[in-house]
Design goal:
By secondary structure, this protein is an alpha/beta fold. Among the domains are: 130-222; 390-512. Helices cover 56% and strands 8% of the residues. It has a 5-stranded mixed beta sheet, with helices on one face. α19 links the parallel β1 and β2. It is globular and about 75 Å long. The protein starts with 6 loop residues before the first helix and ends in an 11-residue tail after the last strand.
């Protein structure tokens, strides 16, 4: 890993590694099929009703799922393959970014750290919004550096524009990237003239034009995405001991980041990043670049964690820069901090090996623990990484048995009373993958299912429905009164693995009469 190789040899080694990793991921997905996660089934359902906006996210993930579903013939493997390709591509872009900032050997170390991070394994298995976002963010970083360092011309600006535009349509986080570029240029006296270049400004801020379609969509849907997004920044209800709760959630967040990066890698990364932040003025330009796009927002994220609960994936794109900076420290391109235990190159090699070993062990656990649990008849154990994905196919299969016994099964529309994941898993798991409606007791819009047309708007008045819900002898009165009459027609249990058995009941609603129009929360 540390011997003197030519740049060509380092590049060849990186491509062989990436090719092997991608091949493994594709073969693994074929050999060990896993039910889609809740978000995956949810976004897949979005992809069947293409639009310019959705309840909680911009539209690119739905467009991506529509493409994957089309090219893969509706198979689960196509979803897994797309995630594997995007996750591996993100690792390749990290390698190219770090190589451009420092040298190819440092890029190789960054590639190893990135691939060993459990987060990359998850990113390469589940097709969620973080996969395209990470690819777009890393591409934008690479192109920004190439252009501002003089290594790239108009081609870099075109790619930067496209990466930003697609990134904006993938996740709201991408919107902060252009202002961060401005901050970087303002901190570098020799680069401030770039702020006068129309091409760069057009690439950065012209990319926001990609948000025009979802903005128009939101304007026509009571700004529902904004209403949803702002809830992420609201503090929870008042508790008896808020200081204790905040401390507990803060350290829980830190613990999750240890799992995201691998423990030793996370400790070294945070130490390097925050030490370099303290020496920001004297740092080299590549280090300052990485700190602005990684260290500064990561520090802000930790401060925010003192105020509210954060999701483990929120800092994901900031780790791209932080991993590159950590790799530079391992390769002695960042010579400080010089801790006593890691002052020598040999000591840093050993530390790097240990960090990689920890990450590889956690990533191996992610891939191989579930087959091992299944082998020993313990699938769904609390320690099983696939625990939350189990049982949904069984639930759909049991529901289908009841459905097909109805003489007019093809004429019935389907309703789920429960979490949105149940609705999307049912839609994905049924043989004909039908449209599934969801009943929301609050009458509020809390998912995409309430944004879409109601059964009345889809001209189903007078039709009968099959309604799936957690076991109950009767439907809730508020739902039952939407039909002329209702009756329970069946019940079943679904084994979700390792003593997790959920019970469901299926009801038939006859002659739909009315359906409420969901409201935007707070209106």
């Amino acid at each position: 890993m540390w011997n003197g190789l030519t740049d060509q040899e380092w590049n060849r080694r990186a491509l062989f590694l990436l090719g092997g990793v991608l091949l493994f991921r594709l073969v693994y997905a074929a050999l060990f099929p896993v039910n889609p996660a809740g978000d995956e089934a949810y976004y897949w359902d979005w992809g069947r009703q293409l639009d310019f906006g959705y309840y909680s996210k911009p539209p690119f993930i739905a467009w991506l799922y529509a493409f994957v579903d089309w090219i893969g013939g509706g198979s689960l493997y196509a979803i897994r393959a797309a995630a594997a390709i995007l996750g591996t591509l993100a690792a390749f872009l990290l390698f190219r970014l770090t190589s451009t900032l420092f040298d190819v050997r440092t890029g190789w170390i960054a590639l190893l750290l990135g691939l060993a991070a459990p987060a990359n394994s998850v990113l390469s298995f589940f097709l969620t919004i973080d996969a395209p976002l990470t690819v777009c963010w890393t591409t934008a970083l690479w192109m920004t550096w190439r252009y501002t360092s003089g290594a790239g011309g108009r081609g870099s600006l075109v790619i930067l524009f496209l990466a930003l535009a697609i990134g904006h349509l993938s996740k709201q986080m991408m919107m902060i990237f252009p202002p961060m570029v401005v901050v970087f240029l303002l901190t570098e006296k020799r680069l401030r003239s770039f702020l006068k270049r129309p091409g760069l400004l057009l690439a950065l801020f012209g990319s926001y034009l990609s948000l025009l379609p979802p903005l128009i969509w939101n304007a026509n849907h009571d700004w529902i995405t904004i209403h949803h997004t702002k809830h992420h920044f609201e503090t929870g209800p008042v508790v008896e001991n808020p200081l204790l709760e905040r401390a507990e959630e803060f350290f829980t967040f830190l613990a999750t980041q240890m799992g995201v990066l691998a423990p030793l890698t996370a400790i070294i990364l945070f130490s390097v990043v925050f030490t370099q932040l303290a020496m920001f003025r004297s740092a080299s330009r590549p280090v300052r670049f990485l700190l602005i796009f990684g260290g500064v927002p990561l520090a802000a994220m930790l401060v925010l964690a003192l105020r509210q609960k954060l999701q483990p994936n929120w800092p994901a794109v900031f780790y791209v820069s932080c991993i590159a900076l950590t790799a530079a420290w391992f390769s002695l391109r960042v010579r400080r901090p010089g801790w006593k235990l890691t002052r020598s190159e040999r000591a840093r090699k050993i530390t790097c090996y240990l960090a990689l070993l920890g990450g590889i062990c956690l990533s191996a656990y992610f891939y191989f623990a579930s087959p091992a649990f299944a082998l020993f008849d313990a699938a769904g154990h609390r320690a099983d990484p696939n625990r939350r994905m189990m049982g949904h196919d069984i639930m759909a299969a049991e529901f289908e048995k009841i459905r097909e016994n109805q003489p007019d099964s093809e004429e019935l529309f389907l309703v789920v009373m429960g979490h949105r994941d149940t609705a999307s898993h049912l839609a994905f798991g049924l043989p004909d993958q039908p449209r599934v409606y969801r009943w929301e007791p609050s009458g509020m819009i809390v998912s995409q299912y309430e944004v879409w047309n109601t059964p009345i708007e889809d001209e189903l008045r007078g039709k009968d429905a099959l309604i799936l819900m957690s076991f109950s002898p009767n439907l809730p009165e508020d739902l039952a009164q939407r039909f002329a009459s209702t009756e329970k027609i069946g019940e079943f249990e679904a084994d979700y693995g390792y003593d997790r058995t959920y019970y469901f009941s299926v009801h038939r609603g006859r002659d739909l009469e009315k359906w409420p129009q969901p409201k935007v929360p707070g209106k």
